[in-house]
Protein 1
Amino acid sequence: MDIDVKNLHPLEVKLLRHVSAGEDITEGSIISGLGYKVGQCNQAFSWLSSKGCLEEVSRTKKTIYELTDTGRAMKEEGLPAERIYAFLKEKGPHAMPEIAEALSLEKSDVGSAFGLLSSKGALRLNEERKAEAAGELPEEIATQRSLLSRAAETGSLEESGLSDAEKKAIAPLSKKRGASSSPFRIQEREEVVYRLTDKGAEMRTAVINANITGEEFGVLTPQMIQTGSWKNGTFRPYGINAPTSRLIPGRRNAYSEYLQWVKDKLIALGFEEFDGPLVENEFWNGDALFMPQFHSARDIHDVYYVKDPVHAKKIDEPWLSQVAATHENGWHTGSRGWGYSFDHEFTRRQVLRSQGTVLSAHQLTKAHVPGKYFGVVRCFRYDQVDATHGADFYQTEGIVIGKDVNLRNLLGLLKMFAEEIAGAEEVKYVPGYFPFTEPSIEVHIKHPVLGWFELGGSGIFRPEVTEPLGIKEPVLAWGLGIDRMALMHLGLSDLRDLFTPDIESVRTRRGN
Amino acid sequence: MPKIEVPENIFFSLLGKRMSDEELIDIFPVAKAELDGHDTENHVIKIELNDTNRPDLWSAAGVARALRCYETGEIPYYDFFSTKDDERPSEGRMVIDDESALGIRDYSIGFAARGKTVDNDLLVNLIQSQEKLCTNFGRKRKTIAMGIYRSDLIRYPVHYAAVDPDKTKFVPLGMTEELSLREICEKHPKGKEYGHIVSSFPRFPYLYDDNGDTLSFPPVINSARIGAVEIGDSDFFIEVSGPILDDLLLAVSILACDMSDMGFEILPVKCRFAKDTPYGREITVPYYFQKPMAASLDLVHQKLGEDLSGEECIEALKRMGVYSIVDDGMIYANVPEYRNDFLHGVDIVEDVMIGHGLGNFEPVMPSDFTIGRLSPVEEFSRKVKGILVGLGFQEMMYNYLGSKREYIDNMHVSGEDAVFIANPMSENYEVIRPSVLPCLLESESVSGHAVYPHSIFEIGKITVKDPEDNSGTRTIDSLGFFSSNAAIGYNDAASYINTLMYFLRKEYTLAEAGDDPRFIPGRAAVIMYNGERVGIFGETHPQVLESWGCSMPSIMAEIDLDKLMN
């Protein structure tokens, strides 16, 4: 059996040391033996019972006469009848009010005591209607006297321990409830008798062997340190596996922490972060990315339009003219263009950013060569909201500009993302399609938990994208689908949970 | 992304052999396709096509052709294409476009096919190819509508004109009574779906044969007689109408090649236009209209990082179905009849890459040294988050789109600075949030079960109107925090603000908040920094709490971090 005496409270320790196997253990025996209060006694019984150290052997109803404060005073000063009898015997006959005043008794108490004593012939009224002693004090008074004395020893008397005469004598002194003016309060109580179990006996032995007395120090107080009193004893060892209480700390959001981790990874790989407004226009959201204005992804059912203002005031030059010419006839990019007439009003129409690549396009106009840039940015898609589609969500995108960057660098970059950010075991590249990159590559990875899935899309920006925005050098563009990894990291399966408003769920959420 | 479903036997017969799912998964990427599923019970293969600029791949025949080429390196030869100088015999088959259709839907062209009796699978597959071309490539029939007719019932030439929509009547497919074109738009299911494309014009497009029998009302519906193709038919006339000639020519070429691959004999049709085109007034269709494309070997080397020889490029392109020659450092490629996606030399480069095999390119890291750097607002936000977490706040993250009820009505504000969406999908997502505070209150309203105090915050973007900005709006990096408890008040909020500002080293002053319905009057303050208002905080007004269904007193604050950072 596994005995850990450190899990015992001092109340339990002292009780165990006090009792022996086979002995009846009751509240009375513990209170009188160890000086516990009733509450302490009950705690010790309950704890030890739940640990299997005590077992209940019987449970009996008892009537108890509890000595009240009145009773204790009466024991010191004497019973009213006693005192009146002694007073009259010593000082001679007195009128009732005189007696009450001399002994500081209530008149009613004097009256009832006289009634009792005169009926037994101990007192009588003389011709002057004064009370005087006539015979011996009745037996009943002496009995009451001794009852008071016995009760004062333990604070109470059990009815089962009284003789018939005593029961008769105690009755006028007792009341059931609210009887603070009576010397005794009658209590109906259950007396439970416990005995040590085998386990209790072993525990008792263990306590004794461990030399634990229950007198060890509990909480270390400032006073103990100041006075040095801690040097005079030992500290009670605490149960280290005791249940802990719940703390609610201030905390970062687990999803936000994950995104921060991704950002830090990218910073470590030499990328500089970009950011931008949520409201964009068709020019940056599509035209600058060489998506023709009639492209199916630019339909009313794919992008959110801003109600007011409908249009941006202007699109900056020379980007507007250069991009428009590129769409129409290829401008100087070597492309034949899309061969349609560019709509200069449509291009100013305002939308909610639908793809992170928009910010890559913006970045081209202010980029350094060589340069690496990224953003973890919120995008909006015209989709029915469900477990795999949010109204708004984060995209992680970036670009690499350099004089000599090429497809093989792009593959190297994707491999690095796959290993550093996704912890991929294997990487596979397949041709992809994006309107703004050529060639385009998708990277699929074998994740230790999720298996094969598409980590992201990438490619080399088309010259029709980079040249009108002032960049002659090749630009690698990439985007990573990190939401799937974020869900796995957080142990979630529904994208909507990433943005839950539920405080309790956010408080308890943690990453892997 | 277009998706198609193809009966196994049709697909494998087009492919020339059977392949396992694993083999398909491996080979599909060369056609930018993915195996989307294989219904082995009904013997149907599901394929997703990722290249939205390659309509030739959106059919079983197109995917099979690409895979066949890739495996064998043999470029298919189609003998039925005419060019400007080399016309194939049309044997009296002709489509004549009338000038009445100009400005409405300029062109109608077509070709005929025969020699293969269609069964159910083949017919379904043919209609699927037609649908993909019209819906995805033709933008829901706006730029391409296609009809398939019973050629044996047609007396050539076929006429295409725009006619009076009330006087022209015929029995449309799927009905038994004669309707006018206008009635078709109003009553026929296809009319309701596609009628809007032409219904604003005074005259509607109409296709009929030389007997005056109706073929169709393009782009809406075929006639119930000539336009009703059934199982067992083997002679067809295929007509395509729309406003952009190159798109129509490409659609025709794709379908003609597909049908040829399926075993049909393709019969050319002469088409006479009502206006001048780059190809003249009269051409024979299918017509090869693409121009050769060139790319320098240097471009290939620069983009791919691999010094491929001219021979290697020619071989790679052959596997992509592209015939090419190399001369003096330049690759000249003949664009396949069924493709029109070569805009720039880089499009040749990509085909070289796929044809050469992506697995043959060794990944290398970019060698340029660059410095990684967080954005200034991200750095500042991290400081703020650290302080708030230290103060016992839980960071939250919310969606940026929501309802007017949440963002405006429940907050008792006017909402005049909020940016609304013109085409919301539902009223639950109709406004960009103008403040973080309603999001925090939503948390409070759904978190009655969570242990108090509720101390939460978010740093995120909000958008408000701003006439100064080019967009008329301003996106702000905003901090919002909120705390509710049985005993909490203005002084707690002020202490949080004071602590935050102390550690951010920001000297601020407070001003009366005045009449802000979100806060209890006299228990809110505006935060002034650099002489500018940067935020507000105070005790949440019980009217706001009531609207959100909250019953715990709370304080809240919102600060413009863009302004505070400077």
Note: The mean pLDDT of chain B is 95.
Protein 2
Amino acid sequence: MSTTRASLRWIRADVKARRGQAGLAACVVAGVVTALIMAATLLEDGTNPWRGLFAQSRGAHVWIHTVGVADPSAALARLDQVTAVAGPYRTAPATLLQGFVKSGVTLRAMGFTPPEVARPLIREGRWLDPANPTGVVVERSFARATRLVVGGHFPVRGVDGVTHDLTVAGIADTSDQGFYPERQPGLVWAPADTVRQVDPVSRLSVTGLLLEDPEDAELVVQRAVTVLGGEVERAFTWRGIQAEMELDNRLLGLLLALFGIVGLVAAGLAIANATGGQVLGRLHDIAVLKSLGFTRGQVTRMLLAEHAAVGLAGVAAGVLIARLLTVSVFADTVAVPLSLAPLLAITGGTVLTVVVATLIPAWRGGRTPALPAVPVAPPHGRLSRLARVALLVRLPPALVLGARDAFTRRVPAALTTFGLAVPMMMITIGLGCWATLDGFRDNPEQVGQAAALTVRPGILSSAEAKRIAESDPAVAEVYPGADVEVFVPGQNRTVTTRAVGTSRRPYPFPVVEGRMFARHGEAVAGQGLLDLIRQRIGDRIRVTVGGSTVILRIVGRTIEPERDGEVLSLGIDSLAGKDADPPEFYSLVLRPGADPAEVRTRLLAASRNGLDVQRVVNPAERLEVVRPVIVALIAVLALIALANLLTASAIGLRDHKRDLGVLKAMGLTPRQITATLVVGTGLLALIAVVTGTVAGAVLSAELIDLQGRTSGVGAGIGRTPDPVTLVGAALTALAATTLTALVPARRAARAQIAAAVRS
Amino acid sequence: MTPVLAVKNLVKIYRTAGAPVPAVRGVDLEVEQGEFVAVMGPSGSGKSTLVHVMAGLDSRTDGEIWLAGERVDTLGEAAWAVKRRKHIGFVFQFFNLVANMTVADNVELPALLAGQSARQARERRDYLLGELGLTAQADSPPGRLSGGEQQRVALARALANQPTLLLADEPTGNLDSGNTRDVLRLLKAVHGNGQSIVLVTHDARVATMADRVLTLCDGQITDDGRIKGRGGGVSDVVRLRG
Amino acid sequence: MRLQLLALLAKEPAHGYELKQALEQTFGNAYPSPNIGQIYVTLGRLEKDGLVRGVDVEQSNRPNKKVYHLTAAGLDTLAIWADEPTEGPRVRDEFFMKLVLAPMTGMADRMALITRQRRHYLALMQDLNQLLAATDRGNRYAILLIEGAMLHLQADLEWLDRCQEELL
């Protein structure tokens, strides 16, 4: 259209004239986008570590396990789509001996230089070294589960029964297989000679294939099986491995979604407010344009284009900054940038928000009458009776005049208040999340981790283990326990069942609804399990444990942060005899103040290393990744709130430019004038901060509970931030808003008063 | 010949919060090609309203408006805006230049709006700025110019598209006598080039530059005629004693 | 004062003292109070010119009062006076008189009066415009004189507007 030239000319001049405001708007958008992308990246990496590992280690798409003499690599390399081959590596099964604990391992024969394809990522120690022929590299999840450290002993017994004393040279991550103990046996890389020593006759080998198009993995497996025939023992594709590694964590995902949406809404409000303020300041120019012959639609499109362009620039900047952060600051934590789908969702959502937020002010700008009237005096606040009384009673005039001014323009005042209250509310909710995490960390019994140590009988008998544990002065309670997998009705996979304590003396599970079980045949369940089997408290379910069926009645609901809440808890005596006696382990609850490490050492000494004493990991530790996310989002919300405030200040100052001269004539000093100008915005900010903080405090516990409920962990975890924090946050917010309003107000009060009066 | 502007029984009533205010109460007017018409009247007589309604900047309540032989008052807001680009140039009392565009951009804007290419618009702009003596200030923002200079820019802008009709609402209302003289001289020159002008003013000196003076009182035209000088002089007004 | 008295007599015949009262009532404090003696002298001159005719009226217990009537010649004079635009420097006063009194004479429409006077002023203004355009920029006194006259004219025109607003 020919008229776009004219529109572009105006847009260019306008953006140049209001560079600062445009820059700030772009910054707000960039900040929101960066925060969302970073949070999503952290979350994705936290819940799906496979992507990062695969990229860093140049993983193989397909792993073929073969049994036979021939070297399959040549045949496999000839297959279509295969670009590189890893291996073949000879493998041998063995058993790791730790005291009387045996763990199955697979030794994989490797060279002394790390391979190009599917390279294990050394995290501790170093790779295989010819100078250390007994050194092996252990896969990290296996090392963690078996408590191996670099330099520690690694005695393995081969199939022939001979024990070989190896040492741990390094610990590495790999994308070759899922985590232990879900995937067994544990993966260990050893020098080829060592493997031959342990198992001279093994004919097993494993070959990795790097493909051109990862989507063809299944087809390649098919062709490999065809080519190699009966030699193929097992085959894995990257998709399967990725699924194994995936930690489904609905809570974090929901949390992120909540913050994301609210962040976008708050940003949208800020942009709408800012755009509205700018259009208000440009009404005169817009009227002039219309008098020249711009149509209503043209003006609307022009304003929309102008602000949408600024928003788009912000989105692009945000994506760029997030990418930079990922490769620089977070290079160690996160290996790969965000995958495409969430990235598109975030950028698309932000662009949509910017457009929608700009739509209404742009439309209203278009409806300006074509008559550029004499510079419009802003609506005068009427001095209400209340205000007159206040002046009579000698309240500072600054306070009264400022208060009156605050409410002259209704809609911008409402928008400003809203635009400050919502971020404040979300910040308070964020603080509530923080307090909830603190609660998990400091009171582990509230998430079901009353016991600090678990004792498994090794060589000693179960009764001995119990006696030794009970005799320790720091141990308060000893609960027998067993972890079994049960089948529940309607599901084709098993569900973890925790049988700890007896029905009469139950383990202190954190029951938040209903009651704790008190009898044989009663159980409590996590929210996730109740959702899964679609039962409620009071219902009976029939579960199958190790072949026998047990009928249980669900009497309560617990907070269950593990496995998305799909856990059943009951007394050990509710199980059939063979599963319950002797107990698999004992959970030890320590006296307050006792140090679990000390107690562990004592128990090991008392049992002469006959017991296997393990520290219990607080399941809520996984949620700690939320903390930096909360900080990032609070920062973004604060930025949005301040942007809103600046808009409000600008509008207020523009309205009262003329009043400045009058105020001075009335005898107010520049300081008092500044005070008047600041009080106006300050009052709105005060109302907003108080409303937001109160609303946030009220909603915080409920929202978090809602999150907990829908994620399976269960309602009852929500915490309100404590009053000191709340007051502190509110005061900080007020101080920040006052300062933000102060600077332009001081400048305006000191500026040429005469000019203001003359105009 | 079709008149450049024809107005029949134009009525404009403002509906405010209180009683409706009739600003224009039935005005008939025809302006021929090349005429210079001045509309005089006391403040509140409706002169500004009349010229704003004729330009389409404000809606009429009743009556017909014909611009270059076409009826325009029935057009939608957008269509009239398009007509306005080519047919009407408007000069306001308070200049109303776009504050954040340079003088050159201000003058070029109507030409771009009317669909001319960037080069054509630039040529027309340079020509106008030269004619009105503003070439030196082409790149300044309007805020830095004096009142008289700003009004000259406004005049240049109004003439950018060689409009059928030039409308002016108190063009010298905010100017001192020196600037008033300059602007009047320019208007006379523009009229000399064949431009049709309708000008609203309370200043008799400005009004008598025109061929035809209308008197508007209380929303109605009370007088409409050509003014012919009679070779009078100062002594007809002031007698010096000495 | 001649024409004021003629105009008043056009409405109805009156004697000297009634004319004085009429003048005072019409103009109130704005116009200096007419001297009764001056009125009689003017009436005498008008009678001598044949524009009015005095008629004696007998009164009991009092000296005779003379009631004056307008003659046909007087009526003509009035008509001519009403029709022509008033010229000359002190046009204000005379014009105002005309404006106020004309309806009483039934001779001139106030609107027409105002319009005619306005056109006269505008024509004068146009003359002054041309004069100013023709004057050399260096001749400061001439320019000032012309601009002074213009300002007076502008003021007169605005006053005309006020009259139109108030009286019509």
Note: The helical segments of chain B are 47-55, 77-87, 103-113, 118-131, 147-159, 177-192, 204-207.
